[in-house]
Specification:
Length: about 700
């Protein structure tokens, strides 16, 4: 132990000398050009909007109740101070003979002024909604076009509104030029008769092919070219989802579109990827990812859910002070990706104090340990403090930033140069990973599927990225009820800086393991010199599959493991979305699965089936709409191997498929968008039959 003590003393001394000799430097902040739009909110504004969580079904009492909740649950204190009415507030006849916009008298019997006064009385701000185009019945709910821009701006200001969202549904229906229309509306808002400052949220959601075939000049992807000079924020893509239905894949789609032009963001002017969506279709982990990404994007934080119904977990995510501080950083820099796009990515945001907010993003379907370096994110030096914004844990690294990141998850660190005595070494304890099921190697990018009687090999990787070793590293593993765990690894005395070790285990499921969700839980411990024993707990969700099919089975009537649809949810024996029977070129099928692209439906067949047959195609329901889109690809995948690929399938060419399933454990039915987006892609697996 004397030699070990001498070694540790030398490492500490070297670290302190290094700290005294190296002075980290950071790039100087660029000075943005002065915007022509007024700076009404220097950092991204925050609030709540009616649209995704309430749809059009809200009243003055509903809005008052939400305002009360925003205050009582701490959201207002955390900065969410705008209560925003979206479409649905207007009367059926939306404009009076005198030209004023009219609120629905049944929903707002006290009038909008009374409601605004109530909101202001709670210490909050009020937002309102209109459209840049003229009101066109059947196309949009209300519009300010047709000569009403100044009139409506004056009316909103007189009512006391603090923010205006201006949509483009009427605008696109009237074939307006968005730059011209929004610029005129911006001028009207700025010149309102009451001289009232009002935030202008420019909301052009039109994209191709999601909406059809539109020139780029009419789409949201073009707003960045003019909106920073006229608005406080501008939508950068289509809606992040549907009312009550927001999916992780669409959140990521909107984030990627929003990331295209970080150079135009500055104090008072923000790219807007749309609303935050806790508990509207995403898991808690997926929503934490959305919150992380919106924070580093310097995006407005507007809650789309009904806050009165949110769990304490969601409220805690929305109000985390370290995450909000990154979003509200006064430098107002939008994060950019470091390195290539892919299943795993690194994003970095420069902060006003010269530090960095660093995101390790895992888009994949299995947990990963992700790494980057301080050099890669623009920092120089020999020692760095890493503060995990979600856990508040502060550690020290020699220059590597690492984290165990769940599927669809993120890690968010605030990184800056370290000074003084060495801190707790940055040690990453990996999430338990199933590497084998029986003798079969588990695909690296797929969620593990296990069944009663299976024996698993599970690994937990532990790495030390600090400047000092850690002592007595150890790990234990626990599984579901009745699981038998055996350790295969002898722990070493220490884990040196820059090194990694892997703890391996076997986990045996009882033959009668109940189907459903289970978990593998790893508990990792080690001693940090000067800081005592440290502990980390990491958890990996595991799906215990239902029994495989037996006999000749319609798979639409068998329990799937998971099922996704590009929009809405997969439907059994009906076309997705419409409730109509499955129908392909005039033939109706009694059984099947209706989905929208992209989609994955996963079954456990447990090496018990020999054959899969089905007819695949685009449902006849799309014959009632326009001719755009309506093309998909269909794949049958067994244990990660493509067994059948349809190529592009259109509305008029369904295909019969017959696939050998011999030896297959996990069967995936996959639908893609054929490269032209998901517009009108109502895809069917008609009469999907397994012979087992």
């Amino acid at each position: 132990m004397k030699r070990l003590s001498a070694l540790l003393g030398g490492l500490i001394a070297a670290a302190l000398v290094s700290a005294s000799l190296v002075t980290p430097t950071v790039p100087a902040a660029a000075t943005p050009a002065a915007p022509s739009a007024p700076v009404l909110s220097p950092t991204p504004y925050q609030g709540w909007n009616t649209y995704f969580g309430l749809g059009g079904d809200f009243t003055e009492d509903t809005v008052k109740s939400v305002a009360d909740t925003i205050v009582s649950r701490g959201l207002a204190k955390a900065g969410y101070d705008i209560v925003w009415l979206d479409g649905g507030w207007q009367a059926d006849q939306s404009r009076s003979p005198e030209g004023d916009l009219v609120a629905n008298p049944a929903k707002f019997p006290s009038g909008l002024k009374s409601l605004v006064d109530y909101i202001h009385g709670k210490g909050l701000k009020a937002g309102i909604y209109t459209d840049a185009g003229p009101f066109i019945p059947g196309k949009c709910g209300l519009g300010s076009g047709g000569g009403y821009y100044q009139h409506d701006a004056d009316q909103f200001a007189a009512l006391g509104f603090d923010a205006v969202k201006v949509d483009f549904l009427c605008g696109i229906a009237a074939d307006l030029d968005p730059k011209t229309a929004f610029t005129e509306f911006a001028k009207a808002l700025r010149n309102n008769a009451s001289k009232r400052p009002m935030i202008f949220n420019l909301c052009n959601p039109v994209t191709s092919p999601d909406w059809g075939d539109y020139p780029e000049s009419q789409q949201s992807i073009n707003s960045w070219t003019y909106a920073p000079d006229i608005a406080q924020s501008w939508r950068t893509y289509t809606d992040v989802g549907f009312v009550f239905d927001i999916k992780y894949k669409d959140v990521m789609r909107n984030y990627d579109a929003n990331a295209r032009h970080p150079e135009v963001v500055r104090p008072g002017a923000f790219n807007d990827p749309d609303y935050l969506a806790p508990e509207l279709g995403m898991s808690d982990e997926e929503f934490r990812s959305q919150m992380t990404l919106w924070a580093v994007a310097a995006a407005p934080l507007v809650i789309g859910s009904d806050v009165r119904k949110l769990s304490n977990t969601s409220i805690a995510t929305l109000t985390d002070p370290d995450v909000l501080a990154i979003n509200q950083d006064k430098a107002v820099v939008q994060a950019v990706r470091v390195g290539a796009a892919g299943t795993t990515e690194t994003w970095v945001k420069r902060l006003a104090d010269g530090g960095r907010a660093v995101v390790l993003l895992n888009r994949g379907d299995s947990a990963k340990t992700l790494t980057t370096t301080t050099k890669a994110v623009g920092l120089k030096g020999a020692r760095f403090t890493l503060k995990n914004a979600w856990t508040n844990k502060v550690t020290e690294s020699a220059g590597t930033i690492s984290a165990a990141v769940p599927a669809h998850g993120t890690a968010l660190f605030r990184v800056e140069p370290a000074r003084g005595l060495p801190g707790v070494p940055h040690v990453t304890a990996g999430i338990p990973t199933v590497t084998k099921v029986g003798n079969a190697t588990q695909p690296a990018d797929a969620a593990a599927v296990v069944a009663g009687g299976d024996e698993l090999r599970v690994e937990v990787a532990v790495r030390n990225d600090g400047i000092l070793p850690v002592l007595k590293p150890a790990a234990t593993l626990a599984g579901g009820t009745g699981w038998t765990i055996k350790s295969l690894t002898k722990a070493p005395v220490l884990l040196a800086p820059g090194k990694q070790l892997t703890f391996a285990f076997t986990a045996k499921l009882p033959a009668g393991a109940a189907p459903g969700n289970a978990a593998l839980t790893a508990r990792t411990s080690y001693e940090a010199i000067g800081y005592g024993k440290q502990n980390q707990t990491t958890v990996s969700p595991v799906v215990v599959a239902p029994a495989p099919p037996s006999g000749t089975v319609q798979l639409s009537h068998h329990d799937w493991i998971t099922a996704t649809s590009g929009w809405m949810t997969p439907t059994v024996d009906h076309s997705v979305g419409g409730g109509s029977p499955i129908s392909l070129v005039g033939q109706t099928y009694a059984t099947g699965i209706g989905v929208a692209s992209p989609s994955l439906v996963r079954y456990y067949v447990g090496q018990q089936c020999s054959r899969f047959t089905a007819t695949v195609g685009i449902d006849d329901a799309v014959r009632n709409v326009d001719t755009a889109g309506g093309t998909s690809t269909f794949q049958v995948v067994g244990d990660g191997k493509v067994l059948y690929d349809s190529g592009t399938v259109g509305r008029d060419d369904p295909k019969q498929i017959d696939v050998d399933l011999t030896g297959v454990r996990v069967l995936d039915l996959v639908v893609g968008d054929a490269g032209d987006g998901g517009y009108n892609d109502r895809a069917d697996w008609a009469a999907p039959t397994a012979t087992c």
